[in-house]
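User: Could you write out the 3D structure of this protein bound to magnesium ion? I've included everything you need below.
Assistant: Certainly. Input first, then the structure.
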Amino acid sequence: MQQLFHGLSAAPGVGIGNLYKYSPIPADDSGGTPAPPVGDPEDEWERFLAARLLVDEELARLAQIGQTATAEIFLVHREILHDSTLTEAVRAAIDSGSDATSATRQATGQLVKLFQDLSDQYFASRATDIRDVGQRLVYRLGGITSARQLNPLPNGTILLAEDLTPFDTTHLDQAHVVGIALAASTPTAHTAILARSLGIPLVCSAGAEILQLHSGMFAVVDGIRGRLLVDPDEETLEQYELTRSRLRRFQAEALSHSHEPALTPDGERIPVRVNVNSREDLLHIHSNGAEGIGLLRTENLFQHRTSAPTISEQLDAYQDVHSYTNSHSLTVRLLDIGGDKPVSYLQQPAEANPFLGVRGIRLLLRHPQMLIDQARALVELAHNVSPVSRIRILIPMISKVNEVQQTLDLLNEVPGYLHCRQQLGTLEVGVLIEVPSAALLAHHLAPQVDFLSIGTNDLAQYTLAADRVNSAVATLATPLDPSVLRLIALTCEAGRANGISVAICGEIGGDPSVQPLLLGLGLNEISVAGPAVPMVKSAIRRVDMDSARALAAKALKCSRAQEIHQLLHDFG
Ligand code: PEP
Ligand code: MG
């Protein structure tokens, strides 16, 4: 009999196939393999060091070429790999008679347990990273790991799991997995970002009940509506097969027109740009026909170092990124660290609620030299670009009008800033609207800047008071809630009244079905994950602006997110 499980859509598409239930081997479990004969402790220690070197090289490569959409996670894993607590625990286990593999399992198992028991959610989530590093080491030492369970897999596999780590995902048999269903996790987690860039439909937060299902059951992952259907009836299956083939046709069609502009039938031109987190994302710009970069997250450049990058190191990095924009603009977000993304050399005190703490511009205004240095590098770059491929500085985490004023006062002092902005026309400055107070005061912010960009990931989190990485409240933090839409509308009104452009760079912008609503609300530019560009452009080409405005007006009168979902469904 057909069974339906509701979750959240984390990567679009429809996958039809057989479930494969994945239960990772705990870090400290040998998986039933007989322990290898134990060599001399010094030999075992050498084996461990050799494996650690290989893992380090692997992580460095992944961080650089970005096998996943985020290099940052692999840099964190390198830190764990070299952490003295882990290394000393392995050494102690070897000295007391364990072989290198068992010693690694024991040491990582103990650490995982220690972190899992901590009440602080940030540290508890580090347990997954430690397990991941432990798996890589054990794998290199020749022991059983979860990777063996994930590759190879039969064709048409729907992977069912509680959650996946980046290690699991990079070792997944990607060619044969047609869908992923996770009991936990959220659409903004690393696995979701990776699944979107691989084009694998993913449903997350589907609840612990899905873990009662068995491998081999026939199922459909509906990454569009966030559902898992097991044993679908004949009619439902037929509908899904149709949707899947229609989607494939749309995708192929969209890709063949991706280098053409996104122009609505009424002649509204909407630039579609990409969000860049890692070097890998740069490769999507040209192949998917994106018009430059709408959000460059610069945090990677500053983290996992012993001191801040110099102006010339930053300039090199920004020049390199700019060379991928094909003469389109590059929006660089000023450093958005602090809170849950600490940098060791700043020695920030621990915070109980990091997302509500000294983050983004709040941190930069306390360390103005960091802001000035980043701006100097960007101004230098702006001296050497043309107005069409201009540099746009984006200020994150603004919650007060005076924070914009203070930031502009600092920028005005940077040599060449005013010249580039006023004479050369190669530099713009904008505010990231991601805190409700900024949206409510957008009419005071807009006159001070050249553009606004709406970060719906944080805007939804802060408006609905629902942590964006906590699966227990993931359904609350939707940007399609009427409260968030009203804030978007206010921001667009402020942009229009002041004659400046309003962009969106949150994840919701990558959903083709919401384009009529976004354009109807008044957004002028969209910035999305690279693979989403062709479908977003193609959706924009079908938007009739009058109907889109009528849709937005109706949506703004709704009281519940469900009504907005229904409106979108009926519209399109
Ligand atoms: C956002 O908050 O929507 C955003 C684009 O920034 P980030 O996801 O990096 O916080
Ligand atoms: Mg944000």
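The radius of gyration is 24 Å.
User: Perfect, thank you.
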